[in-house]
């Protein structure tokens, strides 16, 4: 018995025994970490399900309605006055035919506000407000904005550009449309959109009914998210 006690009281030269790890609350392996993981997993599944559902709803809507952009064209233009006076005022008289085509079979368009602005070399000449209207399915409307008056135009290279275009008999004029529109699908009406339409025109000068060339129809660009 005494020999066993002497053996137990002796020094131990084996590998060190690691201390017992104390449990710390809040670690990933604990109940709190498991709860947070479950919540984040549930949120991710809900978001994923909502995205898939919205994508399918949009696909079904597109397959049924087949929405198509409204098309804007300037089909004719008559420029009967376009000259500078000695005080750098540009005198102009421009009449346009603007064609708006709605190719959609199930979507109508409310034009609650429509204004046309003419510009020369990036400088505004004048603005022509046009009458609001509703455009039905697969219909075409023709508008006739007229720009007439005088405007002070300044610029270092403006006169040189003007003389070159005058020699050619064709002037580069830009028209912009500022709209406030709504779409109608059945009895449903959307909120308001403010698209911007830009039309780059090359207009031959006409004097006494004669011009150096014929105006070519120009397709306008449209930006719904300007």
| Highest CATH level, the class of the domain at 71-223 | Mainly Beta
Q: How would you sum up the global shape? A: elongated
**Structural class by secondary-structure content:** alpha+beta
Radius of gyration, in Å, reads: 37 Å
Distinct helical segment count: 3
Q: Level of helix content?
A: 10-25%
Compute the separation of the termini in Å: 98 Å
- Estimate the strand proportion: 35-45%
Average the pLDDT over all residues and give the rounded result. 83
The SSE order reads HHEEEEEEEHEEEEEEE
CATH architecture of the domain at 71-223: Sandwich
What's the number of extended β-strand segments? 14
Give start-end ranges of low-pLDDT stretches: none
What characterizes the major β-sheet?
7 strands, antiparallel
Here the CATH topology of the domain at 71-223 equals: Immunoglobulin-like
Main location: membrane
Organism: Rubus argutus (Southern blackberry)
Domain Late embryogenesis abundant protein LEA-2 subgroup: 98-194
Transmembrane segments: 32-65
Summarize this structure as a short list of keywords or feature phrases.
single chain, 14 strands, 226 residues, Immunoglobulin-like, seven-stranded antiparallel β-sheet, alpha+beta, elongated, 23% helix, five-stranded antiparallel β-sheet
